[in-house]
Every structure is written in C-alpha cells, then in structure tokens.
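User: ok so my PI wants both of these folded by tonight, can you help

Assistant: No problem, let's get them done. Here's the first:
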Amino acid sequence: MPEASGWCRLLPAWLLLPSLVLMAVCSPHAATVAAGTACAPRCYCSEADEGKTVRCSHLRLTRVPTGIPNDTRRLYLDYNQLPSLPTDAFLGLPLLAELDLSHNELAVLEPGAFRGLAPSLKFLDLSSNRLATLNPEAFEGLTARSNLTGNPWHCDCALQSTLPQLDLEPVSLTGIVCHTADPAESGAKGQALLLTKELDLCVLLKKTTDVAMLVTMFGWFTMVISYLVYYVRANQEDARRHLEYLKSLPSRQGKSEESSTISTVV
C-alpha cells in the first residue's frame, strides 16, 4: 500500500509533464501566428534590431495594401502594378524610414501622397516607374534621399520650375534624366535636368508670352487709333453741318426782310 500511495502522489506530475512539453513546442508557433496576424494580408513581416520590415513584393498589387503595422520601419512594395499613389497613401506610419516603390507603373503622385512621412522617411525609391513629371504637393516637405532613375521624364518649363520647390536631397534630383523635352530642339534629351543649369526650358514660354503681350498691346493701340480717327471724323462732320446751317441763316433773314418791305408798300 505504501508503494501504491507513492505512485498516486507522482501521477499528477507525470500527467503535467506532457502538457509542459506541448506548451514549449507550440509557443514559438503561437508567437509566429500572432506576428502574422499583425502583418498586412499576403505580405511578409519580420522583426530585427532596426525594427519591423514589411515585404509586399511581387504580389501584382494595384493599390497600397491595408493593415500595414504602424510600427513598420521598412516597407517594400516593389515589383507590383501600382498605377498611382492617392492622397494619404501611407498615413499612420510615423516610424517609416525606408519605402521601396520601384518597378511599378506609377504615373501619378496625387497631392499629399506621402503625407505624414516627412519626419521619419530617410530613403524613397521611385525608380523604374512611369513618372514624367513631379507634383511638389505630393511630397509636402519630404527631405528623404530618393532614387528617381529609370522614369520617362518629360523635361519642360513646368518640371524645371518644380525642382526648386522640392526639399528632397539635391543628389536625388540628378536621377531626373530627360527622356523627352519641350522644346524638342533644346538639347535637354538624355541629360540630367538638374545638372544642365545653363539650360532654360522656359525661354520659349517667355518668348511666347512676350509675343502675346506685343500682339495685345498692338490690338489696344489699333483700337485707340481707330477710335480717335472715328472721333475726329465725327467732329468734322458735325462741324461741317453746323457751318452749313450758319451759312443758310442770312439768306433766310434776307427773304424775310424782302417780304416785309413788299407788304409795307402794298
């Protein structure tokens, strides 16, 4: 009986041991599942000393996915099919330091597309997209170093006027290499627009504006001269009529006196 009572005392410990082993085996898996639920759908999340990384590459995405954790430090959306970035596309990511949007189909960056990223973002990759021009309102004071290479940039007066309004690191703007240019004969094609400081793509616009001003001034001058000519001729006509009227007055007065004389004689 003493031996049986000893086994009875040890039985709860033996029953508890498998439960402890099962918890030890399943706990890493449970942590992984928990981490997965905190990630954006179809994306892969990982943790490192530098912070959380979210990879959504090669997923044929046509819009920025929802559910990106707000403690994300690096976000990779490269090799997708994003056609544009809407306003507030990355709002709620205050710690984001690196954003990779390369190899998409981006042609439009709407105003406020990078709103909220200015304090933290250090690197922005927009290479190999379809950007032809830049909207400074999309960046809202963003000072990140950017990769803008591999886009079909259309260099014209509008783009050249936009560059000074961007707060991106100057080295970033060297990636704007003219794919096409306006005017075409400007010689900008194939050149980095920022580096060709002697190139003024607004000259043609200025000339067009000057010509338009000259044409407008000539039109006003013609109208003024026409009015003066009309005014002078109208006055001359009035003066001629008035003079004829004055000339006719003595003859009528003479006829009246002659009639009076005849009446008196009779």
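One down. Here's the second:
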Amino acid sequence: MVGGDTWSKLIVTVRKGDNGDAVKALQVQLNAHGAGLAVDGAFGDGTDGKVRSFQQSAGLNPVDGIVGPATWGALLGGGGSTGGGGSDTLTQSQAASMLSGAGITWSSSGNCSDRNSSSCTSFDGIRRTTVNGAINLKHAVGGCALNITGGTETGHASGTYSHGTGYKMDFAMSGCLTDYIHGTFTHSGTRGDGADLWTAPSGNIYANEGSHWDVTFLN
C-alpha cells in the first residue's frame, strides 16, 4: 500500500526545463485534473502553465510552477484543477483531451460524438473516475493500443452502473489487451448473457462481449 510514508520517498521535485519519468508522472497527474497534456516527459511552457493553474486552484502558495511535496500532495490527494473543473463528470472536450494525452484513441460507426446517437462514441457526462481508470489501464498495458468504441451514448443497457451514467467504456478487442486482462485479473464467473467476467483488484469489472471488452470502472 502506497501511503504518506511511501509517497514522501518517491517524490522528485521537478520544474520547467526538466525531463524524464518524474515529469511524465506529473503530466499524468495533471491530465487526471483535466490538463490534456502530451505525456512526453518534457517540462516545457505548456506543462508549466498547467502546473501554475493547478497550484492556483488548489490554493497553494507560492504559485511558482515548481512541483515539490506540497504540489505533489495536492495532485495525488485530488485537490484543485487545471482549468477543466473539479466536477465528478466531464464534458466531451475535457474527457477527449485527457484520453488523447494518454495515447488512447476512440472510434464509432458514425464517426461522431453525439450522446443522443447510438452510432457515436460520446464522453459527454462521463465520470472523471472512468476516464482516469482508462488512463491507468493504458499505462498498465504499455505499448498495447487502446481504442474506445463505446461511452455514454444512447443505445446501451440502462442501470446504476451503466454507460449512460458514466461508469462504463467499451474497448476494441485485441490480443495484447486480452492477454493482459487474463494474466493480471481474476476470473469471476459468467454474466447472464454469457460474457466472461474478470475482476481487477480495484473492483473494476471486465466483461468479454466478443467484439469488445465492456469495462465497469467502479474505482
């Protein structure tokens, strides 16, 4: 378990001009707060601006663009935002920016993002936790491509933990994603419709629906 004592040993102070894994970790955390940065490990003007915006919204002083223990603590603790808002749900543009910054793609038969059309793939109204879960999955699978084929658009089954309520995403089936799920998570039975279920330690549920993985991001 990574708590305060462990985090204090992991913290690396970074600032404009720095490069490397610590900057990538910073960019990932900023994106979780709506920054929409490319995760390239280069602390340039764009990252500096998002850090300052976050520091200001989190009430940190000084707002200097230097990411030390206080700023890391606020990022990891969930405080503040980079201008995208601290809401539990995201707009289409906020979610798309976060996902594209993490190297995640999406597609639809209608090549559209209208939530009211079943032929689109929409992120309008999706939970921030769901988007963060997708980003964490992308980091976990490394070079394996992730392509989202279903979001909050109409046409999916309803329910408390459904696409429409922002808890679910569909990911295009791929061998490397399936191998990761089978090799990392626990097989947890079969759904009523015959879909094979796999459960992550976080409680997130992966259902094999044949053409895609239907994922419920609970945490």
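The longest strand covers residues 168-172. The helical segments are 4-10, 21-32, 45-57, 69-77, 92-101, 128-141, 175-184. Good luck tonight!
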